[in-house]
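Narrative of accomplishments. A recurring question from our advisory board has been how the design workflow behaves on a single, concrete structure rather than in aggregate. To address it, we present the structure tokens for one chain from the evaluation set, followed by the sequence designed for it. No filtering or post-editing was applied between the two.
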């Protein structure tokens, strides 16, 4: 049990920070993807 607690305290913070950053960047990636998909339409006009 003590081993699990030490692993959680050692790796818990980096996991939480990683998940937070992935959540924040997700909307930016969606916006970038949409812009790339709309690029051919903008180049035609």
């Amino acid at each position: 049990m003590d081993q699990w607690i030490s692993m959680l305290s050692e790796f818990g913070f980096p996991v939480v920070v990683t998940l937070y950053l992935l959540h924040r960047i997700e909307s930016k990636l969606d916006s970038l993807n949409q812009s790339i998909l709309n690029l051919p339409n903008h180049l035609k006009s």
